[in-house]
Amino acid sequence: MAGRISKKKDGDENIISQEIHESSEFIDPDFEMESTGDLSFCSACFEINYEGKRKYVYMLTVPEILQSENNLEESEQQQFNWRSPRLRTYSEIIKQLQMVPIPKLHKNKRLSTVEKRRRQIVESFRTLMRSVQGTSQQSTGATVGDAGNLTVRKYFQFLANIQDIDRNFLGGNIQLYIKPQKDGSTNYEGHAALAVSRRHFTEQYVILNKQYLSFKSSMESKKYNIVIKTDNIVSVQSVRSENSLVLDHFGFLQIETWSRVYYILVRSDIQVNEWLQAFVTILGSQCMHSPYRSVYFEKSSSSIVDASETMKIVGIGPSNPAISLSNNSNAVSILDREELVYYARPICWKLDRKRRIYNYRRIMFRKLYDGSGSNAPVSNGSVSNLSNLSPNAIIEHILHHAFYLVKAIQHNTVNDIDWVKFWDDISLLQVIDLSSLTESQRMAFFLNLYHVMVLHGSLLYGPPPVWNHWNAFFNHICYVVNFEVMSIAEIEYCILRSAMSKLSHFTAFAATAPPHTQYPHLALCCRDFRLHFAINCGSLSQIELVPIYYPHLLDSQLDEITRISLDYSLEIDMVKKLVIMPKLPLQDYAITTTQIPQNNGNILDCLRSLAPYLSKQKRTAVKQILADPQLYTIKHRTFNFKCRFLKRLDDISNDTNIDLSAKNVDDIEEFDTT
Q1: Among 8, 173, 208, 281, which residue carries the largest CB count within 10 Å?
Q2: What sign results for the dihedral spanned by CA atoms 169, 172, 176, 177?
Q3: Stretch 611-622: mean pLDDT, rounded?
Q4: Which is nearest to 426 in space by CA: 397, 458, 459?
Q5: What CA–CA distance (Å, rounded) separates 527 from 538?
Q6: How confident is the model over 437-490, as pLDDT tens digits?
């Protein structure tokens, strides 16, 4: 697939092993620089064809302060086209620009080398511009040249010259090639840059005909990187500037299929219009006006599976890598048919071999809003409806939609629009700003996000049936959230349980050992044992009910879910003097009257902490047990790794009877009360 840039294609062999230095101290992430601020310095990285090789180049802009007439002779001013971005290799840039360390962030170790270099260019260019602005402010009427800043002047001349690589970028042609074929059909061809992440593109040669839209590395290449049936194209549109990289002299086009939106950068607006006309010629004018078709699979094709059937899929894990569909005669492996589900490996991240990003149907190039309410990412669908909401409101809506999808699939009423809206909504999470959330707001947000991802994975692959499927499910399904990559397990252990201990049954096997990724600006600081009951992976050892958590109701919701969970999982038999408890990390329950965790936690502290959440009858029993604990046997129930679909708590009436007899009473282990 296009988008994975080879480590050997940089073209800077002499610096391939050069380390990217970081600042000495960790700093807080800069949301403005992450979202849009970097566009003023190094807007993108491109993998291009140049002199017969594939290499990386970085797109640089010429700041206005360097374009002032005082910096150049009049003849020079007329020679240079300032509005055209410049493309330079990393090795060229470091010779002209004094490089500075990149900000030290915990996520740096998860960033690819290509992205680290881009960030270093951004930071170095930013530092240079600060020095220029400071010099200009201190010297009234002084220019860059007058100030004697040789570094600035040297870099300015470096950007001023338009090189062959700038002229020949994307083939250097501003019009499409129209090529009649022997069978009477027509091929529309041209160079374009395909977006593979927010700031990374790969140059491709694009061919459109009646049957296929194809991408290959170069005009001469015989190997196709991506082939899309034209039947699968939902719409083709020029992208609004709010969600694109606004680059003068370039055009931006999005090609939408059911599972993915392809963003391509072309040489000019002329090419954008020519491509749009070509798609209208092939697909008809409706492709310009229908971002979501009421019936997606309009055209008959023996290889097309009805959308309502495509997600009826079960199983995941090493024993079943090719996930099968329903009994439809046209069903194919989901891994063989990209159009059914899209999972990405953005080039900016260093991902383990099996980890994939599942909220990448749309690439979010810019932040959701700028405070004015006018910066919606796209002009259609549910994306713009949510973009101006708070982070908590967005995730609450997404979880509500996920619960709806579960019910719709169970009742066989799901359609393609439901899936597209869900995938577009979770795409917003890539650039969502969580920096201003309080502790309770973060807790509610990540509880809801955790359950969204569990439901998303269950909808695609089915809930994990046994423990050896857990690693593939909880560690490989990832989202990009707030410019961070995180798996389901990382949200649980590195954010929600960050200040708490790890559950012992997760460390029983190496495949399910908790991760240790650090998210210091997102991780919770509180130790609240109620989180053990609020975090629901779908195991049969837990209740199947999950609420949508709201910050203003969070405390009462945590109380309620703890009460319901204990009613389901804690049993006391006063006749047999037997207590059967869920497996819990005791140190999180060793608390004093001031709710300060202690280090000498034991089973009695745990029972004492849980007593207020028990029924009146069980509270009385616990009081007797605490008075004379030596008379009672306390056992822990073995954790059940088999999972099921979660249900929304609000959808279940309060008088629902939970069948405790369904649990195997013999499936327990003794716990030493001494």
Answers
A1: 208
A2: negative
A3: 91
A4: 397
A5: 23
A6: 999 999 999 999 999 999 999 999 999 998 888 888 999 999 999 999 999 999
Instruction: Report CA 317 to chain centroid distance, whole Å.
Output: 22
Nearest-angstrom CA–CA distance, 147 and 363: 42
Write down the residue that tokens 């960790």 correspond to. Answer: 26
Kindly state the tokens that stand for 482.
């707030």
- Among the residue ranges 262-266, 582-586, 649-653, the one predicted with the least confidence is 649-653
Domains and CATH numbers, the chain: 13-167 (no CATH), 171-295 (2.30.29.30), 356-368+389-539 (no CATH), 560-671 (no CATH)
Helix (H) or strand (E) holding 192: strand 186-197
Alpha-carbon distances, residue 35 vs 41, 47, 366 (angstroms): 13, 22, 5
In contact, 569 and 542? CB cutoff 8 Å:
yes
Between helix 616-627 and helix 603-610 the angle, nearest 10°, is: 150
Task: Tell whether the model's pLDDT for residue 118 goes beyond 90.
Answer: yes
Q: How, if at all, do strands 356-357 and 477-481 pair?
A: parallel
Query: Residue for token digits 């013999």?
Result: 666
Residue 140 pLDDT greater than 90, yes or no: no
295 pLDDT more than 50: no
Of 473, 264, 256, 243, the C-alpha closest to 361 is 256
Other Cβ atoms less than 10 A from the Cβ of 68: the count is 13
